[in-house]
Automatic annotation (TrEMBL):
It comes from Caldimonas brevitalea. One of its GO terms (molecular function) is iron-sulfur cluster binding. The keyword Metal-binding applies. This is Radical SAM protein. It comes from the Bacteria.
Length: 363
């Protein structure tokens, strides 16, 4: 629900200060002036920084199948719902609506932890009908967000995949991935793993408001270097590209990725599905009022005149002249730096299903 108190100008360390109502709510709450100046008094109060809370959940299934033609993997797993990184543009924010929570502040402060994720993954991999395909970790929320340091759910997933010799990919914007090099490196050397590190901007000041609790840009590039030096195929994901915000950095981002040892570059343009749209536009007006209209005009150019168009053919890269210019700049920078836009297919041939019910094999 939307709070009665007026939203603060900003909250340090959070992507948004508001608990925007989700699209399934039947009622909305708003502030009401009672004639005693209550709203003015509340506006003058310094807001307390909201703490992060973890909601434990035991789930029945953890593997999500994907048949979208614009996503390069068929299976994914997300040990968490919600993400403390607080990226204002995150396309996964609307998923909190299904939990009757706000895609705004709740998404980054109320984190759902699937505490039995490893147990359920092992059960699903053991099914006779299961056919191995690389599993992506972190497609919706970052598996290495801050709560992972304590809960270690992502590591438990990697431990299951390691025992089964199952291929996997990781997408993250956290240096926490370095903790699990003991599992990632052997898998990578066997052709069963690669990692993509998202680097949205090299501007640390911009990143403090765009992705407030994610690792600093320099630290992410250091992680790229660590992974590359260890022999792990690593790419850099420039996502999302936001016109007139981080879009001017495209060439510098590709060059920085190459210098850090990345082998491939991937990108997407800004997407504003459901509640992400008003949240992002509020953020834009708050932090970049001088260019907000210009940014949104270009975003609409990318999505066929709409704030967002959920078209499998164009939602990731956009369409039209502006999208073509972005693609051209990416391709030329990639060629100039000797990188690639593609990654090698992972090996599924060594997969060994877990033993069902803990029964050992006779052979």
């Amino acid at each position: 629900m939307v709070s009665d108190r007026p939203p603060p100008a900003a909250l340090k360390g959070r992507g948004t200060p508001v608990r925007i109502a989700h699209r399934f709510e039947k009622a909305e709450r708003d502030g009401f002036d009672d004639g005693w100046g209550t709203l003015d008094q509340l506006a003058d109060l310094a807001p307390l920084p909201p703490a992060t809370s973890v909601i434990e959940e035991r789930v029945k299934s953890v593997l999500t199948a994907n048949d979208s033609p614009d996503i390069p993997f068929e299976l994914s797993i997300n040990p968490y719902r919600g993400c403390e990184h607080g990226c204002i543009y995150c396309y996964a924010r609307p998923t909190h609506s299904y939990l009757n929570l706000s895609p705004g502040l709740d998404f980054e402060t109320k984190i759902v932890a699937k505490v039995n994720v490893a147990e359920r993954l092992e059960a699903e991999l053991a099914r006779p009908s299961y056919r191995p395909s690389p599993i992506n970790i972190g497609s919706a929320t970052d598996g290495y967000q801050p709560v992972e340091r304590k809960l270690r759910l992502t590591r438990s997933v990697l431990e299951v995949l390691t025992r089964c010799a199952h291929p996997f990919t990781i997408i993250s914007k956290s240096s926490g991935v370095e903790r699990d090099l003991d599992l990632i490196v052997p898998a990578a050397h066997a052709g069963r793993a690669w990692v993509s590190i998202s680097v949205t901007s090299l501007d640390a000041q911009l990143m403090r408001i765009l992705e407030p609790r994610a690792a600093a840009p320099a630290r992410r590039l250091q992680t790229v270097k660590v992974l590359s030096s260890a022999g792990v195929p690593v790419g850099v994901n420039i996502a999302p590209i936001i016109p007139f915000v981080n879009e001017p950095e495209i060439e510098r981002l590709v060059e920085a990725a190459a210098e850090a040892g990345a082998g491939s570059i991937h990108y997407t343009v800004l997407r504003l599905p459901w509640e992400v749209n008003p949240l992002f536009q509020q953020w834009l007006a708050q932090h970049f009022p001088d260019r907000a209209e210009r940014v949104m005009a270009r975003v609409r150019d990318l999505h066929g005149g709409q704030d967002y168009k959920a078209d499998f053919k164009a939602r990731m890269k956009g369409s039209g002249l502006w999208a073509g210019l972005i693609a051209q700049r990416i391709d030329k920078a990639v060629q100039r730096c000797g990188l690639t836009r593609h990654v090698k297919a992972l090996d599924v041939s060594a997969f060994r299903p877990p033993q069902r019910g803990g029964q050992g094999s006779l052979f």
